[in-house]
Amino acid sequence: MKNKTYETVKKPPGQRAVSVVVIVLNVFLLLTSVFLYSSYGYAYQVRLREENLGNIANLNRSAAAYATALIDSWNTKLKDIELYAEGHEMTRDEALEFINDSNTNQNRLFELISDDYSGFLARRGDDGEFIPVSYQKSSYSELQKAFKDVDDNGYKDICFAPEFTDSVTAIKFFGIYKHLTLLSDNGLPQIYTLLLATKSSDVLSAFNSQSDYEEQSSVLIDPSGNYIVSNADFKSTNFFKYLYTYNNLSLDMRNLIHSEMDEKREGELYYKNAMGKDCVFRYEKMTTNDWYSVTCVPISSFRTPVLNSSYTVYAVLSLLALLLLDVLWLQSINRRLRMSMRREKEASEAKTDFLSRMSHDIRTPLNGIIGLTGLALDEKNPPATKEYLENIQVSGQFLTGLVNDILDLSKVESGKVELHPEPYSNRDLVKYVDAVVVPLCKKKNQNFVTSPTGDLPSLMLDRLRFNQIVFNLLSNAVKYTQIGGTIALYWSMGKVENGKTALQIKVCDNGIGMTEEFQKHMFESFTQERSQTATTGSGLGLAIVNSLVKLMDGKIDVESKKGKGTTFTITITADICKEKTAAEPTLNSDLLRGKRLLVCEDNQINMLVVRKLLEKWGIIVECAANGRIGVEMFSRSQVGYYDAILMDILMPEMNGLEATKQIRSLDRKDAMNIPIVAMTANAYDTDVTNCLNAGMNEHMGKPIDTEQLKAGLLRLTANYKK
Amino acid sequence: MNKRISAALAALVMTASVFTGCIAAKPEEPVSETTVAEGEKVVLTVGGAWTDCKAIDVTAAAFSEKYPNCSIVYEYLQDFETAIEKRLSGDEQVDLFFAENIQANSSLLPYALDFNSVEKIDLSNTFDGLIENFTFREENVEKAKIYSIPVGAEMRGMYVNTTLLNSVGLEIPQNRKQLMEACEVLKEKGYIPFHGNPGSFSQTLLYPWICNLIAHAANPQETYDKVNNCEAGVSEIFREPFAFLYSLVENGYYDYKKAQTDLDLFNDTTDEDYARYFLNIKKEGDDWAKADDLGQIAFMPSPLSLQRIIDKTKEDYHSEIDYEFVLAPVSEENGGFAYLSPARGIAVNKNSANLDKCIDFINFLFTPENNNTFAEEFYVIPNTKEAFSYIKNSYDVPENHISELGQVTFSYGFYDIMLGALVDASKANNPKYMIDNGDGTYSLYPLDHYMQTLEDGFKNQ
Predict the structure, then answer these.
(1) CA quadruple A482, A485, A491, A492: dihedral positive or negative?
(2) B251-264 per-position pLDDT tens digit
(3) How much is the pTM?
(4) Which of A458, B126, B183, B319 is the Cys-Cys partner for A423 at CB 3.0 to 4.6 Å?
């Protein structure tokens, strides 16, 4: 069967090739997607960089243009003052007066500073006098130093100061300076520094007014890196020192940057700013002088260009194609799986149907053979005929056992056996053994020994299956023990824990025993040791025992020695029965005398067997050849006319199940409660369930077990209230 | 089969993840912890005397990351001593500023916030000794005040040019006797052994010794009281270090004037200048370059913080001069004197419009993690509970040669008085401050002259 199952799931020809193609396509599409995305990512990065660098370069030029325009306008202003003051040979106070009168922008400050670092602001204070200012020598020297740097670069007539701290307010100012000659009090010419300044914050806000990026900042530097227009984001007093300090550069690297800027005139530097952020520093040498405008933008502030839609569409389509392909592939796999499962199910059902049919078809004639043989034996027969009939009966019983074994094994293997635990005591076991096994022993003149019959508690066991285990072991023991040998059955119980106990059964014999080689395979189906003298049996008994013990979560141990005998030990853990078992009623067939039974059976031989059997017990039997006739007879009868109905299942015109349903649906008082007993060769649990679901009270398998039938009828008719 | 389905699903997930990569993940925004992150964006300005203050910038970046609505800007104030007062009293005020110990005579006192009056301030992770040294105690006022908090601690010591010493067959001196012998050898070879600007030279060299004379006196409490009360004759406690300084000057082991005029040394006083002087880096045209790999300064008293700048300068100019930083071996026994002094205080402008945020920044600055980062960039020892143990862990110095801050913290400006007298003594061989013999020669004033200067300083405090 397993081989057949493999065949059903085996891939159709070419399926493997399809799988390979699908996998290759998956890999191809994935790699293509990754490649495309990488290409796109690279192109995207390039474009991002180019677009942003272009923007930053423009911003940098704008800042430089603004600074140039501002300085040019201031330069013009200073030159105008110089020309006018020197042309009119003004004294310092006259010049201050003139400047104060001509300055219309209150945010601009003019100072006149003499060589002793002191001077006046060209603005009158509360006392009406020009406000005096004075510088520290060091700060003034710094200014002079800046002047020199600028002068050396060809700006002789105008001096640009880096950001400086105003001596009065200690606030940062940005200014430009020019030397001019005024007359001192004694009429001698004296050089003054004319300063035009405004607050750095005002200049910077205008200087950085075109701000497209977060944390963008610009400065102007001279060729040495000193700030002309500074910015709080640019640290130190020198641009190169700033990069050097905040990027832990070596001096060589600092000098290299300096050289590179000199050489290239414009470009980008990539370094960290004072906040530790990776930035691009765009620099460009101005066209009007040697200064550089430098703009810093953190790379994290770069704007993101719009995604290229064709890339996105292609990527999405690739993904969708991949998805579609995979879904189709998965559906194909699922379809094959479903088909395989259906085939397996169909094969299983076919097997079950086959066994069921075989069981039914074999049991039906067997029922006739055994039943009629039994009836024939009851007659007066010549000794030879009687012997033949007895042999026929034995053969029939053997064949019944064989069919039962095959059916049981099939059920166990397919998981269709369900256990139905019920109270079971050691007395039940003794009674069963006395009835079934002891006669077998007597036939072979064997001694049968059992445990003393104590009053052990009842256990919850499946009576049928447990008896089957015991019977199979004991019948094997009888079979493989020589005449006059000894068969023993012992049982014991372990400690009771949590309402459970371990029941141990030992079946011992001093028979022929088993070889060690056979013991390895003894639980396999259809296995018998070749040298065993007894040739009867299907070889299924131990396999069934083993399966049933496993089903009960028990274990089975074997000790056997060739020529010495065998001991099987079975241990099963079972619940202790809390209720006391009711005493089994005596089966007195006299109680059935005069009862009227309707028997629905299409097989005439079986009908004969049943009728004869029932009549032997004094029962009045009325026959129906199929279910439809049975229903008609019941419906035509008076209420309470029949005491029970025996119903075959497989019948022409109307089967037993349908007939039962129709009887139960009749509108008469006894329709619902008249006992209906299934009497069929269909012996699977599903058959039993179907019968009960159809409305039957009990199920009895064929060949008919007369004792079981008698007991059932006694119980059902006794309880039937017409 | 399951494997194939899993592989197919994994492929889908991979593909999806590739494409979801197109969408930039939104960076996780820092969670604000205080009111700083709420409301409008605030810019705090920190005023300082250094053209750069990378330490503040680095800390500011971390602060802004934690509090996105608040940023810190450092502003270099030219002529800081006068500029800071102008800014604190003017319209455009700084919110925080660097200031040394603000005591009664400080012009910044009216503008500085008393941290002890702020409930929210958290200095629990700082070293008590450093805070105590900056604590201002007024007479008859029970509660002390703290106007500035040292951001770190300094160690005074001496940089020894081992290349130069080795070239004349000397090892690093371990005690005063060896030091003087080394000086004599160096002098004979034509070197001025000790160098440094007189404004800081002597206090850097001798202040740990001076502190030790108080902290580990035969009767420390009695000595402390005597100094604290400026009792008559208190200057005698410090005669030995003054005598040592005097002998350096008298013997020409330290001659700042000659160094400045003949060798062009220590005319500039930034840390970078000090490093260049020590490594003999000289100006060549517009650029700097190393003059040699030997140097001309054997001993240069300076704080530990200079070490990183020397290392950076050494690397930048490819100098081969080797050196060591040691505690000045001015003791008779081996090993020098150690004293952990507060370095670079930070104060809050009490008139700041963003006072609450300033406190947040101070609290942030003095968490151990941030203070360590800050101190590292500032080249000082972090102001944390472990500050003092740094000395013991780093230098082999006798227990009785280590002074704690609390042992030399007085109710008046002891340091300023001592500094004044030491600077005077270190200039003793400058003809400008010598006795004019009238014949073109000059003589040193005697040691007692400088001891008297010191005594007068205590007397007039």
Answers:
(1) negative
(2) 999 999 999 999 99
(3) 0.58
(4) A458
